[in-house]
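Exam revision sheet. Question 4 asks you to relate a sequence to its structure. Input first:
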Amino acid sequence: MASNLKVIFLFLWSLLCEGGDVNVQQNPLIQVALLKEEVSIPCEVTFPYTLKYTKFSIFYYWINLLGQKTSIYNREENVQIPPGEENKTIAKSYNHKTMPLESNFSTGTYYCEVQWSDIRKMGNGVFVLVRGTGYIETSYGRDILITFTTLLAALSIIATALLVWKRKVLCPKRNQLNILRQKVETRPPSASPPPPSPVYDCLNSQQVEVYSVLESNTKNPEPRRNHPGETSKKQETLEESSDTLYENI
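Answer key, structure tokens:
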């Protein structure tokens, strides 16, 4: 019984060892392609340098979005073992380029599958998205930027013109006052007009004239004028005195 279990265990171990040293990898997982462009299907095969695993077949195919499988290419490989490299594990790339893609229906998952004498390994697949056109740089952003810049420049010019018009037309008095003030401030002190004579000077001149008149009157007094009554009395006294004078003679 123990011997039978040992045989079964060795058999299972040999199976695991046989399949454990081989593998298939596909990277990157997603690609974007344009029409009329070739697509490279990645396929990296890992295997040991033994007579059993150096001979294998590779199949390339793709599955479209509807789940339909289409064969692309297959090849046979018989790898020579370098001297001194026996039983060593190696990874080799077996990429394949497709024909130029004809339509958007070529979108799908592209696979690489490797088959040995008793083992079959399939890669995880690469999804290829086929587009009709690539990125086209549009000039919309540039046109919008130019229009916006021109609009800002026009608005700034209009605002400046309105400010100048408001300053020259709506505020002329303020401008005249400013000009007069600037002229007064810039005039040198020697050029300033003489201050007006005060009122007291005029009064003083008038007083001087009055004094001069008074002085002239005192120097040349006018004959005293008598009243009519006084003149008549004087005449009577004169006549009386003249009469007495005649009598004495």
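Marking note for examiners. The radius of gyration is 67 Å.
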